[in-house]
Amino acid sequence: MVGSLCGTLARRAELTFAALAAEHRKGWPSSEVTHTEENLRAIDRAHGDRVAIRPFTSDEERSNGADWEWWFHSGAVGFGMRVQAKRANRNGGYDLRYRPDGDKYQNDLLIEDAMKAGCIPAYVFYNHLNWPQIRPGKPWVGCDHGPFTEGQLGCTIASALVVKQTLRGARVSTRYVKHRSRPWNRILCDGSESSAPSLEVAYGRVLSLHQTALAELEEKAELSKSPSGVASLPIRSASSNELGRVDRHQHDGEEDRRWADHETTRSAAPLSPTERALREQLREMTDRPVRRLPQRVRAMIRGAEGEPADERTAGAVLVNLGSAET
What we know:
The chain is an alpha+beta fold. Helix content is 38%, strand content 13%. Strand 2 and strand 3 form a beta hairpin.
């Protein structure tokens, strides 16, 4: 994994996994901001020739719900993600009900502003507790750079729609979110498949996460129209075969598992008119191929000075995944 972005992401995940566990044991865990800054700086140091970073300010994050904007490109084409980072608490849960303005959930702000910026809304979770795979020894996502290790769960990615789904219910399910997130190095692996460009492979994996989450959001909303409102939910793609049970022995000596940390098959409320309109936007975004980068992103790649024209999109991490012709 030496020299690859995948290798750097794997090492950062393992370091995050170990550091956060140690911090919780000592009672002074670092914030999401600290872990984000350490990880992004490490990526910049290891890949300064292909990475450029412009983080959001705290004021910008309050308005757009994101910690950073992540663009992956090859030449002048690529795709972007708006990312919100969440650090796991001592029991492995996340603060997902945060309302920066006291009104809307941070999750809603993230999704809405990501749409305006032409980005896919996503979460990165910093974890310190493992949850096993249903097929031990086999990676959740194909990757040729090395075997799966539990430390790679230190940094995982999930669609923002996964968080939206759990926020629509009466209970916030940490298990639901964990089972639908994947190690970031195995989603954003560069060059693991020689048959396709790295950009296309990474884009396909990101879209798969998002499309599966969108399908499940719609399916659970549809269940509310049935007489019983209760059913087992099939999940499109192979992700349904990857769900495992939480490793309970790791919680010995900790406070009892919170009632909220349980996955449920109860249906959610029907989608509102606003949510239905947003769903159509998201579906259109995830159905299109990689396309030409926005002018503001192309300007950053060229190293143009000055503030971006759109203040909502001031922060970005730009990663070159190839050398496609512009």
